[in-house]
Amino acid sequence: MKKFNSYSLLKYCLAVLFIVAIFSQDISAQTQKITAEQESARSIFKELIEINTTHAAGNTTTSAKAILKRLTDAGFAQKDIQIIGPQEKNQNIVVRIHGSGKAKPILFLAHLDVVEALRKDWSLDPFQFTERDGFFYGRGTMDIKDGAAILIANFIRLKKENFIPERDLILALTAGEEGGADYNGIEWLLKNHRDLIDAEFCINMDAGDPQIKNGKRINRTVQASEKAVLNLSLEVKNAGGHSSLPSKDNAINNLAEGLAKLKHYDFPVQINEVTRTYFGKMAALESGQLSADMKAVSENPSDTAAIFRLSTSPYYNALMRTTCITTMIEGGHAINALPQSAKATINCRVMPGAKQVDIQNALTQVLADNQIVVTALGNLLDNPDSPLKPELMQKVESVTKKLWPGVMVLPVMEVGATDGIYLRGAGIPTYGISGVFIDVDDNRAHGKDERIGVKDFYDGLEYEYNLIKIFSAAK
Prior knowledge:
This protein folds into 2 domains: 36-226 and 383-471, Zn peptidases (Aminopeptidase, 3-Layer(aba) Sandwich), CATH 3.40.630; 228-376, Alpha-Beta Plaits (2-Layer Sandwich). It is built from 15 helices and 19 strands. The protein has helices spanning 6-30, 36-49, 60-73, 145-160, 185-192, 194-197, 251-263, 273-285, 288-299, 304-310, 314-320, 356-367, 390-403, 420-425, 454-471, and strands at 81-84, 92-97, 106-111, 130-132, 135-137, 169-174, 201-204, 211-213, 216-226, 228-237, 241-242, 323-331, 337-338, 341-350, 373-376, 408-414, 430-432, 438-439, 451-453. The chain has a 6-stranded mixed β-sheet with strand order 1-2-6-3-7-17. A 4-stranded mixed β-sheet has the order 16-9-8-18. Strand 4 and strand 5 (135-137) form a beta hairpin. The termini are far apart.
C-alpha cells in the first residue's frame, strides 16, 4: 500500500470533500421541491408534448380530450367546455370561467398543433418530454405548448380557488396555426361560433416573448401589431423554340431582369404607434449611432439618414416597411429548348393598414414589363394595429415590476405572423404577452432540440397567473 505524507493526505481529503460537495449539490438540484401549482403545470406540459399534434401524423382532438378530462376533474362543468371543429380530427377546445359580468370577456389564446419533427434530426425523441440540464425538451416546448400548459394550469388553479372574476375568462386552444392543415382553428371559430370566443380583447401566448440576452433578462415585449402575408406569382410566357436559335425575347431572362429590379426596390417607410414606441424605448437600451438613429426615427419618421442606417439590419428594415422577396423560382422544360415559361414566387410581409391593390400596383410599376404577369396567390387579410391602451399597458407594467423588477416593457410589431391577425381583423384587439423568457440567441422554435428553461417555464406560470388576475378586473 502506498504511504501518504501529511501533505498528500490533506490533498486527498480535500479532493474527496470536493467530490462529495458536488455530488450533494447535484442530488439537491435533482430533488428540489416544486410547488403543487408547478407540479400540475409540469404534468400538463408533459402530456401535451407527448401527444403528437403535427399535421401529418398527429391530432389535436386527442389533446383536447386529455385537457377536457383534467378540467372536469378540477370541477369545470361540461357545459363550459366545448371541443369543436369542422371534422372529428384536429378540433379546438374552448373553456369559460364565468364572471360577474361587469365587463366584456377576455380571451386567452394558444394553439395545440406543432410543426413536423423527425427523430433522425434530433438528438432525443421530439415527442418525449425530457428535462435535462435545466431545460425542458420536446417539439412544442417553445411553440407553443408551454403557453397552452400554463393557461390550462392557471384556469384549473382559479377554479380550485373558487375565483369569481369581474368578467368571463375564455380559453381557446386551437388547431391549424402552423399551416398545412385543412383549416385554421381561430378563423373557423370566428366565422362559425364567434359567440364562444367574442371578447373585449385577447391575450395571445404565441407572441410577445420576454427576452434574455447574454444570460440577462432584458425586456418584456407586448406584441400589439403584426405583418400580414401576401404571396404573389410573377410569370413570363412565350413561344420558345430551339436553343440553337436564341432571341432576346427569353422568358427566363425577362423574369430575371424583373427580379433584379425588385431586389433594389424598397417600399416606403411606415412608422406606426407600436414601432414608434419600440424605437423610442430601444434607444435607451442601445448606445452610439444605433441609439441616436432609433431616437431619430421615433421622433421623425422622415429622417432619411437614420432610416438608411437602420435599414442595413434586416430586422429593423422589416419593422419599418413592407418587404417582398423571391422565395421560389422555376422555368424551362428541356436543356436544348428555349423556355416557354418562367415563374417566381414572391413572399411579401405587409405592414398593417396597407392594401393589396397598392402592393400589386407598386410591383407592376417596379417590374415595368408587361410580359411579367403579377398574380396574387390568395388575399391579404385585414390587419389593423391593436391600440396601446394606457390602462392595459399599466397592468402589464404592474405585474412585470412586481415579479421581474428592472425588466422593461416594450411594445413590438411581429414581422412574422400569428393567429392574432384573424382576431384583429374581426375587431378583437390582440396582444401577444407570453410569460416564458426566450434567449434571443437560442431560439429553437420549429428547429432541432426545441427547448425552454425549466425556471423560465415556472416563472411564466406565475407571471400569467398574476396577469390573468389583474386583467379579470373590470377596471
